[in-house]
Amino acid sequence: MKKSRMSRAVAALVLATPLVAAAQAGNPACDAAMKAAAPKVRLTTNMGAIVLQLDHDKAPISTENFLKYVASGHYNGTVFHRVIDNFMVQGGGMDKDYREKPGREPIKNEAANGLKNEAYSVAMARTNVYDSATAQFFINSKDNDFLNFSGPGTGYAVFGKVVDGKPVVDKIRKVKVQPSRFSEATPLEPVVIEKAECLK
Q1: What number of other Cβ atoms are within 10 A of residue 167's Cβ?
Q2: Which of 36, 79, 116, 132 matches a 20 to 30 Å C-alpha distance to 126?
């Protein structure tokens, strides 16, 4: 990948400034998931369902952070606001009107955990600040080796993978997009996460 294209690709993972979090609601299924080594989360979208299996052992901070957002209902009604075919689909931070939802404090970047940004892996989006990830995440639609940890201050933290619904990811990454005020590739028709839930 040429440097200019790489710069645009990395820019596609940038988050807006995090906001103050809303209170977390209790959720028995997610409470149980917090104790599991490989918890699963189902994202029901308006294009189909995607099941993610998270890696609590290698990415405990990112996994617990993601599960807390699921438990609180944060992801319900959010959209995949940045979709770049042959790269990734990013969401989890904006509602259907493309307004940013409040998030909690940023977490530590776990990019050095050994997990790779390969096709259908899920990772935390962040700003250019290394430890800045909050709610937004992305699903890689191909192997993106340049996003992996390669030394201090580099990499995007992978914390799970798609185990069911890969065709749905493929459908999402093929939607028609247009430039917007926050992305060079925003879907013309919103791709909505209608519900995110922890699976038993």
Answers
A1: 11
A2: 36
Residues 6+ apart with CB under 8 A from 144: 9, 87, 88, 117, 118
Phi and psi of 122, rounded to 5°? -115, 135
pTM, to two decimals: 0.88
Tokens of 138: 């992305």
Summarize pLDDT for 9-57 with one digit per residue, the tens: 454 454 443 333 333 446 899 999 999 999 999 999 999 999 999 999 9
* Average per-residue pLDDT for the chain: 89
Residue 16 sits in a domain of what CATH number?
Answer: 2.40.100.10
Phi–psi pair at 178, nearest 5 degrees: -150, 155
Q: Which residues pair with 83 in a beta bridge?
A: 89
Distance in angstroms (rounded) separating the CA atoms of residues 104 and 133: 10
Range of the domain at 138: 3-199
Which amino acid, residue 31? D
pLDDT(108) > 50: yes
Count of domains for the chain:
1
d(CA 2, CA 7): 9
**pLDDT, tens digit, for every residue of 118-150?**
999 999 999 999 999 999 999 999 999 999 999
